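Long-time lurker. I teach an intro course on protein structure, and each term I like to show students one example going from raw sequence to a predicted 3D structure in token notation. This year I'd like something fresh instead of my usual example. Would anyone be willing to generate the tokens for the chain below so I can use it in lecture? Attribution to the forum is fine with me.
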Amino acid sequence: MDHASIAYQNKDITNKVLAEKFKGKTFQVYGLNVPKIERVLPTNIPTIRANELRLDNLFELEDGTAALVDYESDYREEDKVKYLNYLTGIANRYLQEKKSCPILRMIVIYTADIKRKQVQPQYHIGALTMQVECAFLSELNSEEIFLRLKEKIERNDQLEDEELMELMILPLSYQKKEEKQSKIHQMIQLAIQIGNRAQQLFVLAGILVFTDKIIDQEAANKIRRAIEMTQVAQIFEEEKQQALTQVAQIFEEEKQQVVKKYEEEKQQVVKKYEEEKQQTVKKYEEEKQQTVKKYEEEKQQAVLNTSEKIVQRMIRKNFSTEEIVSLVSNFSQDDVEALRVKMAEEEQSLRISV
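-- Reply from a regular --
Happy to contribute to a lecture. Here you go:
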């Protein structure tokens, strides 16, 4: 299978993965001072000839511009006509979709085979001038980057976004074809060791796309299998998380039911206690009232008995009724006269019995 077929397959496999993961990433680690990526745009251009590969990547950047990104292992002046075709094709696609075409940037990332002095970034043809923004991977310290990333991955440290971008492009920073092929396989093995599954998937997909013009079928298949396994593991992890979430939700619902039942029983107990308390208080108040009433009655009776004895003595001493009433306030004249009659009857009865 030729590299053109591999390149098409690689993009079909990895476009969805990269579209989800490229947001927020930057090309600054390649020496390009452009805004961060906002999203990945489709790369198909209907007007490009059938025998010509579609452009490598198309990104919408944070500032609203669109960046066409191509990867080259050699420099040819005629490639700039290809870039013009890309640009006019993208502009035409926006026109067909009745959308305003954003400012387009043409970015070319050169592998280590090309040095900066070999490249002329401008293309003048009179009616127009095209400015190409170039990145030269030959200027990267490949071995230093490789060792640094290798040590970090082996320590299971979290990788920064810039390090992910370095990792996926690193094979292209080597000059010889054999070195590139060897580093592709090493990068795949290194990427598989990344503990974060999302980062692992992103790097594997990036290696597949960025190296699609030089990657061999064995390495491409290895990446595909690793991506499939990672995606399956991700699905399993998501299902596990969903199951844990469901269990937590069921536990929370049962806990809420237990709490609700406890609150209801607590309210019933409190209600019963309040009712019994009210009944006890009511009974106590009734008994208290009865006791007070009885005490008052006994007190009144005691006072009456004491007053009666005083009146009796006063009657025996021949106090007049008016004098007695004036001295004993709780006895009326009728009461005194009635007691006087009663005492007389008792004395008469006593004399008769004697």
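Some talking points for your students: The longest helix spans residues 217-316. The first strand starts at residue 37 and ends at 40.
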